[in-house]
Amino acid sequence: MAENFDAVVVGGGIAGASLAYAMGKAGARVLVLEADTEFKDRVRGEVLCPWGTADAQVLGIMEVLQQADACALPWLNQYMGPQQIARRDFLATTPANTPIMTFYHPKCRRPFCKPPRRPARKCGAA
Ligand SMILES: Cc1cc2nc3c(=O)[nH]c(=O)nc-3n(C[C@H](O)[C@H](O)[C@H](O)COP(=O)(O)OP(=O)(O)OC[C@H]3O[C@@H](n4cnc5c(N)ncnc54)[C@H](O)[C@@H]3O)c2cc1C
Predict the structure, then answer these.
(1) What are the residue boundaries of the structural domains of the chain, listed by start?
(2) Is 115 in the pocket of ligand 1 (CB under 6 A)?
């Protein structure tokens, strides 16, 4: 049976899935076409910088990061061997007063999407 969508997003990575989720929350019917049937760990750092956290808040996807057990890091200490050489308080020194968020990349993408339907994943329009 044919279905109609307002938007089709090709690629359900963190960018495509975030966009689809935000559009779905705003009422759009969105289809995400993802080539992989399983979200793979692509070893991509798992750190969302404070300005990315601010964008995530604006996009309304913080709830998804929380479902993926994301942790907020409000500050960072840097060491050279045993010697602490720097400390940054992100809440006090970033424009939006936001922390770094850390999360496991594949786990973060999972809550964005419903189970696969044939080769495609339909996301966001829940
Ligand atoms: C080693 C490394 C470390 C990194 N560390 C960080 C970090 O700490 N913090 C940070 O913010 N960023 C980091 N990045 C960058 C970050 O991973 C990328 O910016 C981000 O993953 C890009 O997201 P994306 O959704 O655009 O692309 P991708 O995550 O690459 O997702 C694209 C998706 O599209 C799918 N796809 C591709 N072609 C098709 C097609 N024709 N049809 C259907 N589906 C398709 C793919 O299967 C994939 O799932 C790192 C990157 C690398 C390589």
Answers:
(1) 1-43+107-126, 47-103
(2) no
| CB distance 69 to 62 below 8 Å | no
Ligand 1 mutation pick, 14, 64, 112, 122, max ligand atoms within 8 A of CB: 14
The contacts of residue 112 (CB under 8 Å, 6+ apart) are: 12, 17, 18, 20, 21, 64, 123, 124
- The count of other CB atoms within 10 Å of the CB of residue 14 is 17
Q: What is the pLDDT of residues 51-67, one digit of tens each?
A: 999 999 999 999 888 88
* CA 42 – ligand 1 centroid, Å: 8
| pTM of the model as a whole | 0.80
